[in-house]
Amino acid sequence: MAGQTDTERLARSLSQADAIVIGAGSGLSTAAGYTYDGDRLLRYFPDFVARYGFTDMYSGGFYPFDTPGEYWAYWSRYIWINRYGPMPSDLYRRLLRLVKGRDYFVLTTNVDHCFQRVGFDKMRLFYTQGDYGLFQSAEPQGASAHRTYDNEDAVRRMVLS
Fold first, then answer.
1. 20 touches 14 (CB < 8 A)
2. Of the candidates 54, 59, 86, 135, which lies 20 to 30 Å from 11 by C-alpha distance?
3. Cα(33)–Cα(79) distance, rounded to whole angstroms?
4. On the CB side of 146, how many CA atoms lie within 13 Å of its CA?
5. Which pLDDT belongs to residue 39?
6. Would you kindly state where each structural domain of the chain is located, as residue ranges?
7. 127 with 111: CB under 8 angstroms?
8. What is the band of 106 on the pLDDT scale with cuts at 50, 70, 90?
9. For the purposes of burial, counting CB atoms within 10 Å of the CB of 85, is it exposed (0-12), middle (13-18) or buried (19 or more)?
């Protein structure tokens, strides 16, 4: 309708919808403050920036570290701040308020698990690229082929050591 803001049109559409499908990629997490370069990189990875010249967290994840210790020093910190650390903003909570009590489903490529962390129903989430909070065997076979393992305690111990 003429004269309405984008927010007003969205609110009206949501109120009239029978069901809501949310498709979310990295842009939503970036908007929520999960930046992988700049101040956030320098705050959490100054040692890796100085030693390896990393310009962003994402590229650092592909670096061929010399030892498993270096590899897990990087990845445990990366997982901790992007999965378990404080969320940079309330954007995901605000999105949940828009759909709470409604028939909704979320399809996301985000692995930071922000949807579930703020209270989105796990049974209404499909995170196609996984979750930083889960480990799976590198060579899954037999009974463990389809299992994942919560990694919070292991990651916490690695970050603290």
1. yes
2. 86
3. 15
4. 0
5. 95
6. 20-160
7. yes
8. very high
9. middle
